[in-house]
Specification:
The structure is a single chain. By secondary structure, the protein is an alpha+beta fold. The protein has two domains: 5-177, Bira Bifunctional Protein, Domain 2 (BirA Bifunctional Protein, domain 2), CATH 3.30.930.10; 185-226, SH3 type barrels (Roll). The chain is built from five helices and twelve strands. A hairpin with a 3-residue loop joins strand 4 (86-89) and strand 5 (93-96). Helix 2 (66-80) packs across helix 4 and helix 2 (66-80) crosses helix 5.
Amino acid sequence: MHLFKFHCFDILDSTQKYAIRRAPAHMSAILAIEQSSGVGKPGSIWHSPPGNLYVTYVLPLSNKPNHSIIQATTVAVLNTLHQFPCEIKWLNDVTLNNKKLSGIICDKLADSMLIGIGINLKTYNDEYNSASALKPTSILHETGVELGALEVAEVCGQNLVKALNDDANLIRSKFGEKLMHKGQLVKCECKDKNIYGIVKGISEDGKLIIEANGLEIHLIDCKIVLN
């Protein structure tokens, strides 16, 4: 049973940008073999050579906050890659062996939400150089296992719909269980300041809990860097 109708392209600038421009019907999935201008977190580019998964799922608009949607999507990616020891780097990165494997973005239109997922199945940018971010990798490089993009996209779509409809406590529990850096001192790069503290876990409303100077701080929009 196919939950999504797939629209497959050899190359797009970005599956997410295409979906924003075209506003496809609900339960469509935009899949590209290659992206010329893939998007990641605000201000970042997702390196998108052939061989990996680049997909945007078009779903009915949800009233859930973006961070809850991203957490459910992250859990869906983990469930799709359940045979590998993947973890989560706050908020929207899936890692393997402490290297970045997958990224997630979410945009909302008038009556739709667009969930973009990139997973490095076979290749990655080996020229990547950043002191503050994780080094990228691929499933093939780390495990020797070769996966097909369309097959992974179909399974991930099924897991995505399930995760978005699962109990919020179940999603938070799985997300918190796989969260990296628990118990470690980190720097949280927020919009207006940096916060140094210990990662404690996830709050009941899905926020990152940091213990700093004896206080418990709950954060959403921040980037974690090991101190």
